[in-house]
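User: Predict structure, ligand 4HQ.
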Amino acid sequence: MMDIAVLTIFPEMFASFWEHGIVRRAVEAGILSASAVNIRDFASGRHKNTDDMPYGGGSGMVMKPEPLAAAIRASKDKISEAHTVYLTPQGRPFTQKIAEELSSYKGLIFVCGRYEGIDERICQNFIDDEISIGDFVLTGGELAAMVIIEAVIRLIPGALGGDDSAEKDSFADGLLEHAHYTRPSIFEDQEVPEVLLSGHHARIEQWRLETSLIRTFLKRPDLLKNRKMSKQEIRILNHWQSEIGNIIDAQSVCKSFALSGDEQTF
Ligand code: 4HQ
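Assistant: Predicted complex:
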């Protein structure tokens, strides 16, 4: 059973998130408990302010430390051994590996900032981990928290409804997914690759690995650089390399017969 608390001044943003799809299924399966906590409930004073002007001047507001500290303490009391995450562009870039890491905690607390962010003393004394979902600017950490929560929940055993689809996903083995097709077998003159209709399971698996590898090489070569390849994968890439070599060799033969080099622009 994983326990998740999200600390935010906009808890309503999470209502439909908790009620749909994989999050709802995980809660109904009894493997997840999730809630949004309103930081304002921990603010004091007549106006229950959660933000204030920045020391040193300048534009924008900063989230006050006291309500945040009280809200985090209350969540830590409820969730034993919780790992506390602050969403910020300064955090470590979120990856599937970090999703796997987070999925091993019994409890997660996500702190969502608004405005210019939270008082530095909260970062220093109440936060275990800072994570960014990418190099772009959001208005608050709420959407970033949802992105991370979704990626984490689907890794909890039983969250996807029994089958092994989490292991077969993009990134699970460091490659992009192969192409997918469904009926009809001909759509606007475009046919489904013949091998997929053959019923030959070994050849289908070989085709899928081959398209995964080539797509990864073409679209995200960076993913291949830091990845240990299997013998079969090396065999596939060697095969493509020699096919490409054949094409280049054929060009060289043409060139040697050509009188002018007009076709060769590089
Ligand atoms: N934020 N990845 C919250 C982000 C962000 C990101 C900007 C977080 C504003 C207050 N969070 N502050 N990128 O852009 O996680």
